[in-house]
């Protein structure tokens, strides 16, 4: 669980980085920026809003030769060890970004390096370092006035409702590469921010595995269960899958299949589908792991519970009780009409 509302910006440095391949310049401010009381809430919201609205998918710094060879990781570690020297460190962070700014589509932009206190991750109060970049400028009008007229003047500036790129590095799990969140709204070169600059990969914990496995199950239901049976069975499978995760502390694949996949003919289909699709979901050789309640709650909220029929009728399933849809809805075929039908059992109509 992530809480950014309590966060406080203790330090902010501003720089500008151009596109190195176009011989654009690098500008480094000599002093940190002092934020006024008026500007503080606007800047904080600009930095953090996108992360509050985004699903929590944590990353970590990685390097094939070891973290000691990871340039940005070492700069961040130095920043946490000596926050009072963060402005000088922010210059090196910006230089590192400049060295990666070689793709022809990369735009000149302002770079912000911030030190945060009082961020809360899983009920734990932690410090964090944020690196943000604004790239796209918006046109807006300013007005000058003389004694007789208002005169419009076109200017450009940063749109504070949308962050272009950003990363928040939490002072957690430092020995294995910290816990990192990343935003990239302008994906003209996906490698530039995630791989070349940040050098991060997925943080593989129980939250990551639970999310990925449930997403895999969702696509198995759509690609295999629905064609083999019907839309109702697809939804019932996912309902049972989520309930299984919610009612267990640890996942064990054989137990999961026996409890969730009623049709034994689909068991080999499941294993074949997993063998083919597992790399896409980063679940190769994954058959046991601790279950994250947070990830299960997120999946439950996103679970589809409506069957849309071509007769402009919708059937909405209530999955609060896991066996409701299975006990009280039957599907059949009407020979006379040559149409499928759903038979719904109930005692009374609710108001």
Provide the number of structural domains.
2
Q: Can you count the beta strands?
A: 17
Poorly predicted residue ranges: none
How many helices? The count is: 10
Task: Identify the overall geometry.
Answer: globular
- In angstroms, what is the radius of gyration? 26 Å
User: What series of H and E elements makes up the topology?
Assistant: EEEHEHHEEEEEEHEHHEHHEHEEHEE
Please state the average pLDDT score.
89
Percentage of residues assigned to helices = 25-40%
* Largest sheet features: 7 strands, antiparallel
Assign the structural class, choosing from mainly alpha, mainly beta, alpha/beta, alpha+beta, or little secondary structure: alpha+beta
Describe this structure in words.
The protein is α+β, with helices and mostly antiparallel strands and 351 residues long. The protein contains 10 helices and 17 strands. Helix 2 (71-81) runs antiparallel to helix 3 (86-100), helix 5 packs antiparallel against helix 6 and helix 5 (206-228) packs across helix 8 (267-281). The radius of gyration is 26 Å and the shape is globular.
How would you describe this structure in keywords?
alpha+beta, 10 helices, two-stranded antiparallel ribbon
Annotate the secondary structure layout.
Blueprint: E1 2-3, E2 8-17, E3 26-28, H1 40-53, E4 59-61, H2 71-81, H3 86-100, E5 109-121, E6 124-134, E7 137-145, E8 150-158, E9 165-170, E10 179-184, H4 190-198, E11 200-202, H5 206-228, H6 231-246, E12 250-252, H7 253-260, H8 267-281, E13 288-290, H9 293-302, E14 306-308, E15 314-316, H10 324-328, E16 329-334, E17 339-344
Antiparallel strand pairs: 1-5, 2-3, 2-5, 4-11, 5-6, 6-9, 7-8, 9-10, 12-13, 14-15, 16-17
Helix pairs in contact: 2-3, 5-6, 5-8, 5-9, 6-9
